Amino acid sequence: ALHGALAWGGTFLYVPKGLTLPLPVESVQRIETSAGAAFPHTVVVVDEDAEIVLLERFASGDGAAGLVNGSLEVFAGARARVRVVTLQEHGDQVWHFHTQRVTTGLDTTLQSLAISLGGRFSRSVVETALRGEHGSVEMLGLYFADDGQHFDFRTLQDHVAAASTSDLLYKGALKDHSRTV
Q1: Residues with Cβ < 8 Å from 5, sequence gap 6 or more?
Q2: Which residues make beta-bridge pairs with 136?
């Protein structure tokens, strides 16, 4: 709700029908100052038979403190091939909230990797709605927490259409007094 109320602007990417992007597309969301808040919003539309690798990277400068509350929405058409990597590597005084929602079409293939390395507190919501038959989704997560960090992952694979498959695997390591959900 906070993101919806305060987000403005953002990034929009459209991949036309049949186009395969030969290189990954990287979106960098970086905060440099303290006591700031950022509400980045990214929307990606991948048309039929198109392919993309998207890296969404969150980082902060040395000593930066604040709040990042971001959102990524991906709409994948029939037979689209989408790979999304979300890399969160904030400094230890940043609170990070991120929601990733993907909607798939007929015969769509999605591979999603969420990586959390930084921040004081990080919550990632990763949701996929398999709306087209014969869709395939692989949702992976990787995290390394230490020194009192708290990482919270919420996932959802909604099999709306028949004959779709999904696989979920999140793994990580905790050190010192760190925690994960």
Answers
A1: none
A2: 109, 165
